[in-house]
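Researcher: Here's the sequence for the chain we discussed earlier.
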Amino acid sequence: MKYPITLTLTLTLLLFLLLFLLFFTACQSPDTTTPRSTPAVVGNPAAPGFLADSSDPRAIEIADQVMEASGGRANWDAVDTLHWNFFGMRDLVWNKKTGDVTITSEKEKYEMKVNVWTNEGAVVRNGEAVTNPDSLKIFLNQAKEIWINDSYWLALPFKLKDSGVQLKYIGDGMTQDSIAAEVLELTFKSVGVTPENKYLIYVDKKTNLVSQWDFYVKADDPQARFSMPWKGYKKVDGILLSEDRGQRRIEVYD
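Model: Thanks. This is the structure I predict for it:
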């Protein structure tokens, strides 16, 4: 059976268009060989080992609000180096990316360099390098403990969902400066140098920033060892860090 020439041309044209569309679609297929960029951190994921199951949902929600108000998780993760003076006693430089920490004290005449991931480093005291292996190990352990303490005083708002941390929601409270706050109880399980410690964290209802903490040597102590304000926030590399601690001060350097 023969088709009219116009129909034949039409069928040929349709076939050509179909082949063109198939070829064009194939050319537009995604290139699966191109590396994809790592997705940005979303929200405020907890560190491995955070005791989420035994923490209160409301306390976790407030911890996330504190992180956001303090600059956000992305900005905290992006910070390379923090440099601060702890109560006029010593200077610390902490490289968050490498784990290298340098601690210097003009008063006690020492410089200690330690990698807090490997416990390796070097120590100079009174102008002399510490070379005895046993002595060096003692001083490097001391340096790491100093960093653990001083960095916690500096960066607690970013560490509320750390490994081994348990959060409880206490309820409404009032700071010593009469600032309305929501109060969290922070305890530890088998982490840090002093896992038996406890903190009450006061979170300003208006700003969602930490405004005070109460420190307990033992979690079951009836009275806090001390209460200290968190004021005088300074913005450094997109995050907020408190410098004013009442009678004490943490100097944060740009």
